[in-house]
Amino acid sequence: MIPPEDCQNMLEVRAGVDAVDRQIVDLLAVRFRLMTAAARIKQDRDTVRDEARKAQVIANAKAAAESAGVPPDVVGDLWERLVEGSIAYEFDRWDDHRG
Q1: pTM of the predicted protein model
Q2: Chain centroid offset of residue 20 CA
Q3: Pairwise CA distance, residues 54 & 52, whole Å
Q4: Cβ-Cβ contacts under 8 Å for 61 (sequence gap 6 or more)
Q5: Are 16 and 2 within 8 A, CB to CB?
Q6: C-alpha span between 39 and 97 (Å, rounded)
Q7: In 1-99, which residue ranges form alpha helices assigned H by DSSP?
């Protein structure tokens, strides 16, 4: 992938965006495998949703975004959806393991 600073045309920019998107999806796959592990490890279904942990994860992402020069509000919105989706996924996996 060409570094963004070296892109000379939109084909290069789009190729870079597509490459980054593939990397993000690969990382999301790892994150969701971790949700599967959490569902396997947690003994009580009531512990799947942890609002304090959710708030911490979103705050961590927003702080990392700010440090990286990325809009923290945009990252916060993305992480809200990611965490809620992860919780729903974990509930499903929890039920699968004990179903």
Answers
A1: 0.92
A2: 14
A3: 5
A4: 75, 76, 78, 79
A5: yes
A6: 8
A7: 10-41, 51-68, 72-98
Pairwise CA distance, residues 38 & 98, whole Å: 13
For residue range 6-34, list pLDDT tens digits in order: 999 999 999 999 999 999 999 999 999 99
Which domains are seen in the chain, by residue range?
7-98 (1.20.59.10)
- What is the three-state SS of 53-65? HHHHHHHHHHHHH
Q: What is the DSSP letter of 70?
A: S
**Residue keyed to tokens 């592990």:** 37
Pair of tokens at residue 25: 């999806």
Neighbours of 78 (CB within 10 A): 13
